[in-house]
Amino acid sequence: MMDRRKRVKEIIKVFNQLYKDAQCTLDYEDPLQLLISTQLAAQCTDARVNIVAKTLFKKYKNAHDFANADLKELEQDIKPTGFYHNKAKNIKETCRIIIEKYGGQVPGNMEDLLTLPGVGRKTANLVLGDIFGIPGIVVDTHAKRLSNRIGLSSSSDPKKIEFELMEVVPEESWSVFCHQMVYHGRAVCKARKPECDKCEIIDFCDYGKENSK
């Protein structure tokens, strides 16, 4: 089989046809909304987060509103997303830090974003790519699953997968490629049973090649 860089180039060609309009599936209107929605999306579907966020962002309009929110009330407001005690605490603290250290604005670099409670590399890369135009590899459950199945990574560690993908995916494609993997993961390469017979990148996929014999 061709090396990983060549395979990725071919996969990108297919993805650019199938998912040329791929974008973040979280609904947001400003950097803070994306940051908070991504925090809420931990162990929760984007669809459910979007339902919760619709009401949430009408009630809390900026970092000050979240920082000054009653913790118990905020917990109830985000309860459907799960792990709401921790998420509410992190959101309040994140917004306090954003106000005190960054003048109420979401910071635009990895180092500062990673100092915010509940913000890991996945969230930071998503915010940097979609808000600030700084390319990053977002390793969510879809990117992890597809990277392993295709044969672009053999790791289960998101950070290792991120750096392995950075080596083989052209930098200008980092952000959109990750969005496209989400689309492909939902449409075809599903968690429980991938639909390899419908897959248009099967020729470049270790799992697909093995299971189509």
From TrEMBL:
Pfam families for this protein: EndIII_4Fe-2S, HHH, HhH-GPD
Essential cofactor(s): [4Fe-4S] cluster
PROSITE patterns named among the record's database cross-references: ENDONUCLEASE_III_2
Catalysis performed (reactions): 2'-deoxyribonucleotide-(2'-deoxyribose 5'-phosphate)-2'-deoxyribonucleotide-DNA = a 3'-end 2'-deoxyribonucleotide-(2,3-dehydro-2,3-deoxyribose 5'-phosphate)-DNA + a 5'-end 5'-phospho-2'-deoxyribonucleoside-DNA + H(+)
Record-level Gene Ontology MF annotations: 4 iron, 4 sulfur cluster binding; class I DNA-(apurinic or apyrimidinic site) endonuclease activity; DNA binding; DNA N-glycosylase activity; metal ion binding
Residues involved in [4Fe-4S] cluster binding: C189, C196, C199, C205
GO biological process: one example: base-excision repair, AP site formation
Cofactor note: Binds 1 [4Fe-4S] cluster.
The family this protein is said to belong to: Belongs to the Nth/MutY family.
Name of the featured protein: Endonuclease III
Organism placement in taxonomy: Bacteria, Bacillati, Bacillota, Clostridia, Eubacteriales
Gene: nth
